[in-house]
């Protein structure tokens, strides 16, 4: 469901690295991606518009300014709004079935032909009989369930319900095509009362499209039975059409909830959000297979998390902050391995990567034990300052100069000093340190080098570099 939202958001989170906070400008891309993802998933346009504007409002609001990173803040806002769109705003138990009625609690099933009404009746009966139901978050035990079909137009429908009732292990009330739907309902209710059923589920006739006769019939059944739950069953594959069907049923009947079936198919899932939005009624269940066990209670929060692939995105946010460019890191490592070709251009690239990985202190914390002792003696603030100064120097040099710093004349060094705001002595010191480092590299054993590379930031990005000795 809504796979694209995860993908698109991941991409946006990546581009947000390095941004200090969410602004009108940098959220624009994100909002466009969210919009596209929802439209691709078949969510209807008005719903998309409203959702996007809510995310925008929240993202630019107060809450975000104080949060850790823009990426996290953003995903947080989308998650919250998605939960609310899926029904989280209706309260924590809105998705639960309500059965708190003098038994039998009656559930009326409504929907188009082929939407999965009969199958869902069987699934629901089984689920209740097995004690899957909970009230206010607490399990409420196994139920004695009776099912009946008021579909007098299609005798096969009655047979079908009989079969699923047997599979579900619940009681089935026979009915026949020559009876009136209301008589069937009355008889079933009477039978359920006499036999102390906790729940009576009434399956109704479907039509190929919305027609007035069908609506009247189900309204009459509703008036007679006064069900505590009137569930609208809708096929997720209907896509945009689901909205119109949902609207018609919602106007004809006081629906209490929605069951979205066939979510296991090619359905893009967006219908769920639209239906929820146009009816204002909670999604209570989703059908995820043809089998009787294929029914899942709907949890807005969990579904939103699943849609967002929350774990993945959050770890991606962290990854993005480290912002290690894998290609770059591999190139550098290859050069360091060679030992001699590592010049100031590479050094500059490396500094940029280290900066992206976060401040020095957090970087040092990630070092393995053998390095952390030395690291603890480093003043990380000072180190960060030092790195910034080195970067200033390197940025003031040309690429050619960085490749062959030994050619730098004194007059040129003075100009670099002026350009970077760092005294000439410090430039000289840096250059000679770098020279030492280069010769050290040449001498260093390859295994030792690999170890050092791995230590630098616990570089996940270097994982793929099997070629280096000492690398796993
Ligand atoms: N894959 C999948 N198939 C489902 C699901 N729910 C129902 N189906 C299938 O959808 C088809 C129609 O389901 P029915 O339960 O017969 O539909 P109905 O709404 O009762 O149709 P009528 O009785 O004609 O009004 C059947 O082949 C079911 O097996 C589901 O969640 N997933």
Automatic annotation (TrEMBL):
Cross-referenced InterPro entries, in alphabetical order? AAA+_ATPase, P-loop_NTPase, Signal_recog_part_SRP54_M_sf, Signal_recog_particl_SRP54_hlx, Signal_recog_particle_SRP54_M, SRP, SRP54, SRP54_GTPase_dom
Record CDD domains: SRP_G (cd18539)
Q: Which UniProt keywords apply?
A: Cytoplasm, GTP-binding, Hydrolase, Nucleotide-binding, Ribonucleoprotein, RNA-binding, Signal recognition particle
Q: Which GO terms describe its cellular component?
A: signal recognition particle
* Gene3D superfamilies (UniProt xref): P-loop containing nucleotide triphosphate hydrolases, Signal recognition particle SRP54, nucleotide-binding domain, Signal recognition particle, SRP54 subunit, M-domain
Which of the seven top EC classes does this enzyme belong to?
Answer: hydrolase
Residues binding GTP, per UniProt: 111-118, 203-207, 261-264
Q: Which SUPFAM superfamilies match?
A: P-loop containing nucleoside triphosphate hydrolases (SSF52540), Signal peptide-binding domain (SSF47446)
Main location class = cytoplasm
Record-annotated membrane-spanning stretches? none
**Swiss-Prot/TrEMBL GO biological process terms:** SRP-dependent cotranslational protein targeting to membrane
Q: Which reaction does it catalyse?
A: GTP + H2O = GDP + phosphate + H(+)
Q: Which EC numbers does the record give?
A: 3.6.5.4
Q: In this protein, which residues make up the domain named SRP54-type proteins GTP-binding?
A: 282-295
One Gene Ontology molecular-function label: GTPase activity
User: Coiled-coil region(s) at which residues?
Assistant: none
Location of the protein in the cell: Cytoplasm
Q: What is known of its domains?
A: Composed of three domains: the N-terminal N domain, which is responsible for interactions with the ribosome, the central G domain, which binds GTP, and the C-terminal M domain, which binds the RNA and the signal sequence of the RNC.
> What subunit structure does UniProt give?
Part of the signal recognition particle protein translocation system, which is composed of SRP and FtsY. SRP is a ribonucleoprotein composed of Ffh and a 4.5S RNA molecule.
- Family label: Belongs to the GTP-binding SRP family. SRP54 subfamily.
Q: What does this protein do?
A: Involved in targeting and insertion of nascent membrane proteins into the cytoplasmic membrane. Binds to the hydrophobic signal sequence of the ribosome-nascent chain (RNC) as it emerges from the ribosomes. The SRP-RNC complex is then targeted to the cytoplasmic membrane where it interacts with the SRP receptor FtsY. Interaction with FtsY leads to the transfer of the RNC complex to the Sec translocase for insertion into the membrane, the hydrolysis of GTP by both Ffh and FtsY, and the dissociation of the SRP-FtsY complex into the individual components.
Entry protein name:
Signal recognition particle protein
What is the primary gene name for this protein? ffh
């Amino acid at each position: 469901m809504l796979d694209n939202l995860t993908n698109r958001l991941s991409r946006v989170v990546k581009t947000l690295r390095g941004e200090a906070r969410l602004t009108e400008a940098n959220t624009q891309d994100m909002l466009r991606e969210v919009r596209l993802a929802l439209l691709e998933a078949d969510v209807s346009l008005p719903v998309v518009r409203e959702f996007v504007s809510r995310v925008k409002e929240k993202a630019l609001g107060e809450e975000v300014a104080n949060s850790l990173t823009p990426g996290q803040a953003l995903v947080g806002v989308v998650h919250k709004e998605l939960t609310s769109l899926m029904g989280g705003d209706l309260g924590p138990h809105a998705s639960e079935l309500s059965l708190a009625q003098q038994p039998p609690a009656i559930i009326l099933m409504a929907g188009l032909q082929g939407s999965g009404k009969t199958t869902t009746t069987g699934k629901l009966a089984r689920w209740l009989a097995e004690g899957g139901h909970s009230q206010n978050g607490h399990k409420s035990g196994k139920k004695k369930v009776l099912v009946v079909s008021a579909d007098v137009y299609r005798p096969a429908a009655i047979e079908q319900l009989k079969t699923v009732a047997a599979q579900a292990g619940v009681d089935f009330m026979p009915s026949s095509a020559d009876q009136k739907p209301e008589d069937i309902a009355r008889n079933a209710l009477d039978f359920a009362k006499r036999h102390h059923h906790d729940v009576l589920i009434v399956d109704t006739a479907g039509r190929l499209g919305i027609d007035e006769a069908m609506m009247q019939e189900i309204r009459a059944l509703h008036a007679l039975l006064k069900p505590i739950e009137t569930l609208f069953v809708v096929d997720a594959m209907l896509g945009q059409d689901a909205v119109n069907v949902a609207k018609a049923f919602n106007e004809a009947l006081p629906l209490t909830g929605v069951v979205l079936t066939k979510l296991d198919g090619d359905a893009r899932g967006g219908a769920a959000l639209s239906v929820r939005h146009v009816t204002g009624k909670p999604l209570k269940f989703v059908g995820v297979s043809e089998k009787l066990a294929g029914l899942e209670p709907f949890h807005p929060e969990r579904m939103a998390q699943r849609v967002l692939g929350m774990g993945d995105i959050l770890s991606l946010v962290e990854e993005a902050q480290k912002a290690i460019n894998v290609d770059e890191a591999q190139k550098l490592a290859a050069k360091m391995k060679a030992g001699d070709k590592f010049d100031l251009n590479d050094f500059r690239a490396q500094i940029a990567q280290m900066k992206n990985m976060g401040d020095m202190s957090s970087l040092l914390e990630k070092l393995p034990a053998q390095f952390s002792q030395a690291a603890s003696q480093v003043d990380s603030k000072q180190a960060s300052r030092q790195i910034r100064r080195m970067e200033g120097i390197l940025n003031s040099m040309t690429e050619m100069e960085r490749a062959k710093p030994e050619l730098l004349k004194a007059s040129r060094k003075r100009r670099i000093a002026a350009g970077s705001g760092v005294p000439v002595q410090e430039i000289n010191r840096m250059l000679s340190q770098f020279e030492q480092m280069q010769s050290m590299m040449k001498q260093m054993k390859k295994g030792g080098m690999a170890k050092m590379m791995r230590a630098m930031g616990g570089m996940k990005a270097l994982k793929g570099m099997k070629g280096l000795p000492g690398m796993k």
